[in-house]
Amino acid sequence: MNSRSAKDWLTQIQQLDFPQAIKVMNVCGGHERAISMAGLRTALPTAIELIPGPGCPVCVCPEEDIYQAIQLALNHDLILLAFGDMLRVPVNVPKSQPRSLEQARAAGADIRPVASPLDVLSIAAESTKPVVFFAAGFETTTAPVAALVKQGLPDHVHLLLSARLTWPAVAMLLDSETAGFDALIAPGHVATVMGAEEWRFVVKKHQIPAAVAGFMPESLLAATYSVLRQQQSGRLFLDNCYPELVTAQGNQYAQQQMHSVLDVVDANWRGIGMIPRSGFELNAKYAAHNARLHYPDYTETVRKRQGQMPAGCGCAQVVLGKKYPNQCQLYGKACTPRTPIGPCMVSDEGACRIWWATGVRT
Prior knowledge:
About 35% of the residues lie in helices and about 20% in strands.
């Protein structure tokens, strides 16, 4: 299927007849970046709406977890490590206090960005100071984190885990009365790890067409054509438009690493609230490396309430596919990549940051 060019798929799509608008959600932040950079929205017929979804782990990382990381770094003599795009995510505290890991670092905390879980071991080997790895991400980054734990961590390394499963957020939307989309493009990198079959519930339970896509325009357009054609014909199925890397069952070894190290737990999503069995936590065997058990809890109860986006910030609605980035009242005004108010303007996988980077100003 993917031997066709993007132009071929676009021609096929343009030949379809859609008298009414159809909304197609792309779950993945990488998909949103590829769609925006390739200008696919402007190339598609106007009846087709591509809606960004909850595929940005930085955007949904709970405020209390970021606050906990900041306070650990400020109040303890340790090295705090985090993936680079977490450093600028703001939390809701007075402006006189550090509002992000970046500001906490400027205030003297030893906070360092890492690009890979393997960086944690090399940094820990060079220092006797305690090391806390603040690891936020979906299954794609959680699998190597689990492998890191499985192979054995030094005693002075602890994990502040804020990892999430992708599919429960989509299931929550579909179980609601206002899902807001008619078809789904499932994330290719998550499906590479977890398998395409993980998304079959979209078709089987909810009778919504679904296709797994890669990150090149031809794969994204192939998936778009597939779900549109399914919608038009009424013959629904789960299509794999990324067979180069995605199999039905995924990477079994990666899944084994996660299952042997992590428990699946109920988890809070910033701006969304608690989603049952949507997060990961270290299991009892590896609890000695759980930073939440080793260090004091700095997250007051008030911080754990649903929401916790800054006042006026529309990130929660953007993540849920209820609002486009430029429909937020702060977008391009108070909130820009230089002065981000909400997490969607911070991360390279956040829809607001992506739209701004591809020239959408209003």
